[in-house]
Amino acid sequence: MEETTFPLQCVTKVIGLETLDSTQDLAYELAQKGEPDGTLVLACEQTAARCQDGRAFSAGEGGVYFTLILRPQKKDLCAQSLCLQAAQAAADMLADVFGVKTKVKAPNAVLAWDTKTRKWKKIAGVLVETFFDEDNRLALVGMGVNVNNRLPASLKDKAVSLKQLIGAETSKELFLDELLNVFWKHYAQWNVSVR
């Protein structure tokens, strides 16, 4: 059986800010002004980050927080399907690169096995919003990953950072590069459809 390959898209532009209310909100504003497919909105810290259900979440310094502006070719654009693809990409990368045992908890969470407490804990979350009409398709893929951040005591039993799991800090730039590499592969397969 011959393996099918897909052309990988890439980040075409990076808009990075130290502190931001929400990468998702800024990405939406920029997309409405015509920012192109592949634009990455990145923040070191978010002060008003939100989950899929609208609840706020902790997005302190040390994590990786971004939203990708995508203009998919796929006609049957489904936020839930894309959300699961993005979550699976994060889970796969954490397992393959860092040896962390992971699983996706639908609809939008990535859980990691904390061997110290012997519990599954949230390490990443995904927020996908889609907007489309006859001529225009827009998907905003937001992700927050606990990489080097210190989590609030209130989240001690529910969340974990990569630093806690592997016992060392990780370069956020290299982490993001690895994550996006895996994400583009998942996205290329997801984005194939009858046009």
Write the layout of secondary structure elements.
Blueprint: E1 13-20, H1 23-32, E2 39-46, E3 64-70, H2 79-98, E4 102-105, E5 109-114, E6 119-132, E7 137-145, H3 162-166, H4 172-190
Parallel strand pairs: 1-2
Antiparallel strand pairs: 2-3, 3-7, 4-5, 5-6, 6-7
Protein described:
With 195 residues, this protein is of the alpha+beta class. It has a single domain, classed as BirA Bifunctional Protein, domain 2 (2-Layer Sandwich). 28% of the residues lie in helices and 29% in strands. A hairpin with a 4-residue loop joins β6 and β7. α2 packs across α4. The longest helix has 20 residues.
**What is the residue-mean pLDDT, rounded to a whole number?**
84
Query: Secondary-structure element order, as H and E?
Result: EHEEHEEEEHH
Basic shape? globular
The whole-angstrom Rg is 16 Å
Q: Roughly what percent helix?
A: 25-40%
How many separate helices? 4
Biggest beta-sheet profile: 7 strands, mixed
**Amino- and carboxy-terminal Cα gap:** 25 Å
Poorly predicted residue ranges: 1-8
The CATH architecture classification is: 2-Layer Sandwich
How big a fraction of the residues is strand?
Answer: 25-35%
The domain count comes to: 1
**Widest sheet: strand ordering:** 1-2-3-7-6-5-4
What would you give as the CATH superfamily?
Answer: Bira Bifunctional Protein, Domain 2
Task: Name the CATH class.
Answer: Alpha Beta
Total beta-strand segments:
7
Question: Which structural class do you get from the secondary structure elements?
Answer: alpha+beta
